[in-house]
Amino acid sequence: MAKYWQTKTLAQMSTEEWELLCDGCAKCCLVKLEDYESGEIFHTNVTCELLDTVSCRCSNYEGRHQVVDDCIQLDQENIISLGWLPQSCSYRLIADGKPLPEWHHLVSGSGETLHAYGASLQGKVVSELNVHDDEIEEHIIQWVD
User: Fold this and answer.
1) Handedness of CA 76, 81, 85, 90 (dihedral sign)
2) Distance CA 75, CA 39 (A)
3) Which terminus in the chain has less CB density within 10 A, N or C?
4) Separation of alpha carbons 68 and 49, rounded Å
């Protein structure tokens, strides 16, 4: 029997289905820098202050927009236009008509599979609470999707 993510578009999903689709990689929680002249986006290995870097989940998901003023709410409208989202993002995959990867919790049945597979940021990042603003450029890296 087909699963909801195989039969529904992102726009057809309920709020609960949308939230369940998130793979928990936390890559959308990375601090990104933009060159204002060229518009180029640079990724860092620094995460939002609210990210629990062990579980790769937001420590204040419901109140995140009140704490972090530039936290972007992913939705059906902006998934395609946010070019900095990784190609492995579950929302992007479904929007592009592609299947979820084998490590996704909806496929594997376990929320730990993505960590074991190395698909999350677990063990690869530092919280912005531990990085001074003057040092952020030293944390620019090239992520492999």
Assistant:
1) positive
2) 22
3) N
4) 8
User: Structure pTM?
Assistant: 0.89
Beta-sheet pairing, 41-47 with 30-34: antiparallel
CB crowding 67-88: b at 16 or more within 10 Å, else e: ebeeeeebeeeebeeeeebbeb
The predicted-structure confidence for 88-131, as pLDDT tens digits, reads as follows: 999 999 999 999 999 999 999 999 999 999 999 999 999 999 99
Count of alpha carbons within 13 angstroms of residue 11, beta-carbon side: 4
pLDDT number for residue 77: 85
What are 3's two structure tokens?
Answer: 């699963």
Copy the structure tokens of residue 59: 């420590």
Asked if 38 and 48 touch (Cβ cutoff 8 Å), the reply is no
pLDDT in tens, 8-42: 999 999 999 999 999 999 999 999 999 999 989 99
Residue 115 DSSP label: H
d(CA 135, CA 110): 36
